[in-house]
Amino acid sequence: MDFVEVPVSEDVPVSEDVPAKKSKVKKEKKKKLKREIKEEKEEQGPEPEQPSGTLLPPSYSLSEIKNKQRRHLMFMKLKQEKRKLKLDLRKKRRKEREALGDKAPPKEVPKTIENQRVYDETTVDPEDEEVAYDEGTDEFSAYFNKLTNPKVLITTSDRPRGRTVRFCEQLASVVPNAHVYYRRGLALKRIIPQCVSRDFTYLMVINEDRKVPNGMVLCHLPDGPTAHFKVSSVRLRKEMKRRGKEPTEHHPEVILNNFTTRLGHSIGRMFAALFPQDPQFTGRQAATFHNQRDFIFFRFHRYAHFLGICTNQPKHYNQKQLE
């Protein structure tokens, strides 16, 4: 290819003014935007001044800060400021109450899950005839009529780990007449007929996940019912502070709290049928099932008798002291 040189005359204008025109257009647009923003602020009026001491939220969200350390520092600062504000308000209210004395307004009751709970319509009256009929004809009636004695088989999922094994052993020491069997690939379909033939009244299966017990299946034999519970916050006996002696072979007392609904009534009877009906009070042991916020808290503890000492008793003197 041949290149031909074309002379450029001095009269022809060079296109250097084009970018200059574009920059002028941008500047004019920015000026217009600023004018519009000013007009909007004038129409809205002056912004209300916030009193000193109040916490102003940041004009940006903490998630926009890319630096992790900087983000953490800003979050901690905001948290400290909120805590200071809460303390100042609490001190101010306390001073006002002290100044007003008896004329002070009543304290505000904090909102909790318990006092905000809606009344459950399925709450039953224990003296109801229908409830009494159900209790006399359900699967636990033979136990409550003292026709059968509880006998429990505690088993685990296939090849349990150390924490689950210790949990099963401590359960067997808590529940009287309980036996532990560790499964090694044996199906439950083969275990249940053997339990029924050997007069077991309950089958308890402890499941685990990541070497930690996380579930329990409680099956009443031979005809059910069966319930599945999630297990959380397990604390073994060694992990308890100020723990007492090891549990004895005495039959414990059973305490059931807040099993008032129709479902809770049957669940409470299921737990009660695990233990013999004749508690031995000399052992001073108690097994507590407490129902709260749809959680069942289980505690096994031992109580002690404390004799009160009266300081106003008359003094006894000997005959020699009286002479």
TrEMBL record:
Residue ranges occupied by any Brix domain in the UniProt entry: 150-323
| Compositionally biased tracts (Low complexity) | 1-17
Coiled-coil annotation reads none
Q: Does the keyword rRNA processing apply?
A: yes
UniProt region (Disordered), positions on chain: 1-66, 86-112
Compartments reported by the entry: Nucleus, Nucleolus
| MF terms (GO), sorted A to Z | rRNA primary transcript binding
The annotated regions of Basic and acidic residues compositional bias extend over 96-111
- Name the GO terms of the biological process aspect: maturation of 5.8S rRNA; maturation of LSU-rRNA
Keyword rRNA processing on entry: yes
- Chief subcellular location equals nucleus
Cellular component aspect of the GO annotation: nucleolus; preribosome, large subunit precursor
What's this chain's function?
May be required for ribosome biogenesis.
Q: What is this protein called?
A: Ribosome production factor 1
> What organism is recorded for this protein?
Astyanax mexicanus (Blind cave fish)
